């Protein structure tokens, strides 16, 4: 059961109101999920909020910016508020996926892998994975071009190491966006806060918490430049 301490605070008035607006014309779980996907992908631009992972869905709606973990949190909350069965799947991701976004000087001080999450949605009794909402379309298109120019399979918040990438609504049939860089599976959770409380979650060290706001600002400037909004 999701509690009041959940990050996916689906009972929050702002979350409930947004879910109702997005799904009012939809009758099926698939239709509702598609409508929520479009909003989370483009209405919540890719980027880094002032805090790290411990950001509630209602706060992400206010920020209008998020990355894999905070976007999964808000996607999950909107699904729950709309009556769509969903859950958060977590693991570790190769942090080289952030090359070209975080300044290269930081990488020697980062672990090789970090916490990551994506969504699973229940459609016709089957849990289906989806992560192509993580990058908003303008950023995704710029990132794909940067990756093509740079060469390689992973970077700029895109990984093609496991096959084609995509920013379209799909359950992997035409491609994921981050899944090719996932290096360890940590299972499914009813809320990302539960994962944060488990021993497998990698917390930021004190100096990393201190440095994060600077890293976030630099990363957001680079993301905006790739998107073409700077």
Report what the structure shows.
- The structure is a single chain.
- The chain has seven helices and eight strands, in the order ααβαβαβββαβββαα.
- The chain has 230 residues and is α+β, with helices and mostly antiparallel strands.
- The protein has a single domain (13-223), classed as C8orf32 fold (Roll).
- The strands form three sheets. A four-stranded antiparallel beta sheet has the order 5-4-3-8. A two-stranded parallel ribbon has the order 1-2.
- A hairpin with a 2-residue loop joins β4 (113-123) and β5.
- α5 crosses α7.
- It is globular, with a radius of gyration of 16 Å.
- The mean pLDDT is 94.
Helix and strand layout, with pairings?
Elements: H1 13-23, H2 29-43, E1 45-46, H3 57-63, E2 65-66, H4 68-81, E3 86-94, E4 113-123, E5 126-130, H5 137-150, E6 154-155, E7 158-159, E8 182-189, H6 192-196, H7 206-227
